[in-house]
């Protein structure tokens, strides 16, 4: 794997290729919600033996004998210019004045012109269903799919249906609790875990009634387990939580003990990895 940090995944990899951070490489950044595009010139050169992702895969491609197919004879700057030229061409097609690459890179930011009218979902179809049909077999909004019906999948009906989950409070044993995981407040998934981690496992919120039934006090370390695994947590008695449910953040770096107990409070040890359905095949954690 390629990684700038010694993460639990890197620690378990057979080969780790040291990668640069965003401070050590040139790039262009924008999200779908930003009204601007920003240039990201590197602040420092690569540290130690680190390489940016492009260089890592370029060198791997060279070892495999396909470098020219991978990089098309372009270096980092060449690819940034090529990608920007695609933006310029699209701007010309849509009547948007896009600066050339050198101007953009020198100024550091390009404010994208907002459309005169906001985008409304399915507005063309709503205004003229016959003249602007949807990309469905009927051209309309469909609540039933004969194609999906023909597959005969019992876990994916052809119309909106409620299917009983394999694990939920409706089928839980009297002493079982339902664990819900949320995003941590001070990190993105597992990013910044080390910066925010002090000591002890992640907090797990529990209702006063469930805490009292288990003789737990606020701040006490607890063990969460099911048939798949076990992890530690730190009880946080929360009056706003309904009885029968627990809430625990995701993103704790995986730290397993010799007896198989995860110590930082990573709920991945408890969740299943079954597919959403035979049709979708997406992993549902």
Give a written overview of the molecule:
There is one protein chain. The chain is α/β, with parallel strands linked by helices and 285 residues long. It has 2 domains: 2-111, Dimethylsulfoxide Reductase, domain 3 (Alpha-Beta Complex); 169-269, Barwin-like endoglucanases (Beta Barrel), CATH 2.40.40.20. Helices cover 24% and strands 15% of the residues. The chain is built from 9 helices and 11 strands. Strands 6, 7, 8, 9, 10 and 11 form a 6-stranded mixed beta sheet that branches. A hairpin with a 6-residue loop joins strand 3 and strand 4 (36-40). The longest helix has 19 residues, at 76-94. The radius of gyration is 26 Å and the shape is extended. The model has no long low-confidence stretch (mean pLDDT 92).
Key words describing this protein structure:
Dimethylsulfoxide Reductase, domain 3, 2 domains, alpha/beta, extended, 9 helices, 6-stranded mixed sheet, Barwin-like endoglucanases, 285 residues, 3-stranded antiparallel sheet
Q: What is the topological layout?
A:
Blueprint: E1 2-3, H1 8-11, E2 17-18, E3 27-29, E4 36-40, H2 53-63, H3 67-71, H4 76-94, H5 101-107, E5 109-111, H6 123-127, H7 146-151, E6 178-182, H8 193-196, E7 203-206, H9 208-213, E8 221-225, E9 230-237, E10 245-249, E11 261-262
Parallel strand pairs: 1-2, 6-10, 7-9, 9-11
Antiparallel strand pairs: 3-4, 4-5, 7-10, 8-9
């Amino acid at each position: 794997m390629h990684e700038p940090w010694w993460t639990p995944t890197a620690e378990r990899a057979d080969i780790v290729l040291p990668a640069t951070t965003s401070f050590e490489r040139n790039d262009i950044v924008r999200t779908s919600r930003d009204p601007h595009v920003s240039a990201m010139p590197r602040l420092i050169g690569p540290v130690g033996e680190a390489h940016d992702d492009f260089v890592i895969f370029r060198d791997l491609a060279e070892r495999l004998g396909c470098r020219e197919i991978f990089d098309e004879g372009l270096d980092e700057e060449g690819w940034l210019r090529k990608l920007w030229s695609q933006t310029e061409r699209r701007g010309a097609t849509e009547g948007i004045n896009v600066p050339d690459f050198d101007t953009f890179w020198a100024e550091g930011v390009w404010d994208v012109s907002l459309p005169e009218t906001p985008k409304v979902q399915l507005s063309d179809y709503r205004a003229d269903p016959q003249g602007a049909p949807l990309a469905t077999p009927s051209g309309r909004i469909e609540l039933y799919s004969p194609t999906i019906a023909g597959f005969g999948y019992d876990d994916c009906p052809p119309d909106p249906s409620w299917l009983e989950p394999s694990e939920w409070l409706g089928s839980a044993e009297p002493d079982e609790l339902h664990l819900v995981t949320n995003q941590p407040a001070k990190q993105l998934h597992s990013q910044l875990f080390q910066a925010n981690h002090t000591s002890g496992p992640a907090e797990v919120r529990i209702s006063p009634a469930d805490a009292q039934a288990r003789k737990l006090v606020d701040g006490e370390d607890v063990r969460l387990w099911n048939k798949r695994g076990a992890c530690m947590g730190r009880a946080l008695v929360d009056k706003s939580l309904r009885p029968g449910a627990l809430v625990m953040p995701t993103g704790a770096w995986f730290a397993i003990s010799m007896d198989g107990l995860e110590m930082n409070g990573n709920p991945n040890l408890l969740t299943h990895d079954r597919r959403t359905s035979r049709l979708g095949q997406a992993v549902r954690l």
